[in-house]
Amino acid sequence: MKIHKLLGLIAAALVLPAYAQQESSSAASDAPGTAAAREALKQKEGDTDQTTLLKQTLTAVDKQYSLIKRGKIQATYDLNYTYIGQEKINANFSDGTLTLFNIENDSSHAITNTLSLDYGLRDNLTGSFSLPLVSKYSESPTSSGLSHSLGDIGIGARFQPWEAHRGKPSTTFTANLRLPTGRSPFKVDPNQSLATGSGVATLTGGLNVNHIVDPVALFGSFNVSYSTAAKHLSQRRDGNLVLNRVDPGASIGFGLGFAYALSYGISTSVSIQETISRGTKLHFDNGSVYRTKTQTAGVLSLGLGYRVSPKTTLNFTAGIGLTADSPNFSLGMSMPLSF
After folding, report:
1. What is the 3 state secondary structure string of 11-77?
2. What is the DSSP string of 258-309?
C-alpha cells in the first residue's frame, strides 16, 4: 500500500509541472492575440469620430466657429454662386392718365472664388485673411454686362476667452474688417461696368456659441456691423443728379442652426441667418438727401459634409432667400487645402 502511494506521488510530481508549463505556454500564446485585438479596436491617430466631423461641419457653415493651434497655418478654398432676380413695374402717369406700363426683369449671376488663410497667433486666438475673385454677369432691359475683378479683401480675428470643455457650450468672439478693394458700385457706370465690391470699409463684431451633443451640434450667432461713408463721389444718377456721398446704415445679424452626423463620413446641417440693415443716406450735389428703406435679408441654408480622407472634408451648401432683400438662390463649396 505504501508502495502504491509512493508511486502516485511520484507520478503527480512529474505530471503537474508539465501541465503547469503547458497552461503557462497557452496563456502566453493567447496574450499577444488578445492584446492585438484590443489594439486593433482602439481609435488610431488621424481616425475620425462624430465630434470631429461635427466641428468640421461647423467650420464649413461659418468659419467663425473654428480655432487652430499656435503657429499652425490652414488654407481653405471656397466657391460660391449667387443668383438675384427681380421684376420691376415701370409706370408713368400724366394728368391722371397711365401713359406707360411695363414689367422689367433684372437678373444677376455672381461667381466668387475665395482663398482664405488662418494662422494661429495663440491657442485661443486665430487671425484670418481672405482674398476673393469675383465674376459677375448682369442683364436688364436697358443694359447687360460681364465683369471680372478683385472683391473686397477681409482681415479678421477669432478669440476664445474660455477653454472649451466636453459637454459644455463653447463661446467665440469675432472681429472682421472688410476693405473696399473691389469695384465700388458708387464709382462705376452701371451701363458699362459692374461692381464687385461694396465701396465702403465695414467693421463687424460678433459672438458665436456652439454646443456639441453627439451626434448633434447646436450653434447660434449674433453680430453688429458698421460701415464708413463713401466720400468725394461724382456719379451721375437719374439724368442731372450727381451722387456726392453715401452713408450706409448700421446692421445687426443673428442666426441659429444645427448639424447632424449621419455617420463617420457624412454630416448634414440646417441653419437660418437674418440681417437687418438701417437705411442708407444718399447725398446729391444739389443739396438733396434721400434715405433708402430698412432692409431685411433672411436666408435658409442646407448643408452636406462628405469626408473623403482623414484630412479632407468637402462641404456643400444651398441657400434659399426668404425675403425680398435676399439673394434668390446660392450654391457653395468649401474645401481645405493641404501644402
Report:
1. HHHHHHHHHHHHHHHHHHHHHHHHHHHHHHHCCCCCCCCHHHHHHHHHHHHCHHHCCCCCCCEEEEE
2. EEEESSSSEEEEEEEEEEEEPPPEEEETTS-EEEPPPEEEEEEEEEEEEEEE
Find out whether the peptide bond into 327 is cis, omega within 30 degrees of 0: no
Q: Does residue 334 contact residue 313 with C-beta atoms inside 8 Å?
A: no
The secondary structure element, H or E, covering residue 9 is: helix 2-41
Q: What is the pTM (predicted TM-score) of this model?
A: 0.76
Q: What is the pLDDT along the chain (339 residues), one digit of tens a residue?
A: 444 444 454 444 444 444 444 444 444 444 444 444 344 334 343 334 556 666 666 665 556 666 888 999 999 999 999 998 865 555 555 555 545 455 556 788 999 999 999 999 998 999 999 999 999 998 876 667 788 899 999 999 999 988 877 778 889 999 999 999 999 988 887 667 788 999 999 999 999 998 888 788 899 999 999 999 999 888 887 667 888 999 999 999 999 999 988 888 888 999 999 999 999 999 988 888 888 899 999 999 999 988 888 778 889 999 999 998 889 999 999 998 875
